[in-house]
Specification:
globular; alpha/beta; 15 strands; 8 helices
Length: 267
């Protein structure tokens, strides 16, 4: 897939929950080219940060030529991003990675999102709902109700929306696997799509496998180049090491070696 650089103008940069931000950019070429599940790398400017930051695309408005990125402030780079102001320009590299696949014959899709990882499911939701024959169910998880990313969007657009929060402030109290297990025990789905922390994705993938449900996951890794040259973002799979930036971030859950990958992420 073709990749390019585009100078994008910042339209807004807003804090919508603790440490969670929405960055809206004027980027007509990227808005026209991006596919659900792909991501971009954004230049942090003259800040001493050499490497671009990879961010999934939450929304893309082809008509307006705009994209929206959601990010969480977790380090010096994203903290710098939170100080950006409308009118400034940043360089984007993309579209990067492979998009979410939609198996032929899909009629009932299940979206499963955790934390800020919920963001790349939004464009997929729009793609699926463009087909009137497809129904979409979503199960979303976060620490608290206010941290349910894009909750309003998903509640409006999916056919059925469920959630779980760590503190019980919305939906089921506890892990996302609780409402998910009840759902899979009573309903049939053709495919599941999962994005969030890998410590969440691993048990979700196992649960889907137990129910014979095909499952795709979106993995996250630290990326230096974003084009497969540095091998810094490899993930262990049943067919060897694969670079997340080029062969991912979307993987069939059955090919991911969860025990090895999750262990390496939580050390």
């Amino acid at each position: 897939m073709a990749k390019f650089l585009e100078d994008a103008r910042i339209l807004s940069n807003m804090n919508f929950a603790p440490d969670l931000w929405s960055l809206r950019l004027q980027a007509p070429r990227m808005a026209a080219a991006i596919k659900p599940g792909q991501f971009v790398k954004i230049d942090l400017g003259e800040s001493g940060h050499i490497l671009r930051r990879p961010l999934s695309v939450y929304q893309a408005d082809l008509k307006a030529g705009e994209i929206e990125l959601l990010y969480q402030v977790v380090g010096s780079g994203t903290r710098l991003m939170s100080a950006w102001r409308p009118g400034e320009t940043r360089s984007l590299l993309g579209p990067l990675g492979m998009p979410w696949p939609v198996p032929e014959g899909t009629r009932r899709a299940l979206l499963i999102g955790g934390g800020i990882g919920t963001a790349p499911l939004a464009l997929l939701d729009q793609q699926l709902k463009a087909d009137p024959a497809i129904t979409v169910t979503m199960v979303q998880a976060a620490q608290t109700a206010e941290r349910l990313v894009a909750r309003g969007f998903f509640e409006r657009t999916v056919d059925t929306w469920l959630c779980a929060t760590d503190d019980g402030s919305a939906g089921a109290c506890g892990l996302i696997t609780v409402p998910l297990e009840e759902l899979l025990a009573t309903q049939h789905f053709d495919v599941a799509y999962v994005c969030g922390p890998e410590v969440m994705q691993a048990p979700v993938a196992r649960l889907c496998a137990q129910h014979g449900l095909r499952c795709y996951v979106s993995l996250e890794r630290r990326m230096a180049c974003g084009i497969g040259a540095c091998a810094g973002c490899v993930v262990k799979t049943t067919s060897g090491l694969k670079g997340v930036c080029m062969l991912g971030p979307i993987f069939d859950a059955e090919e991911v070696c969860w025990d090895d990958n999750v262990a390496s992420r939580v050390r």
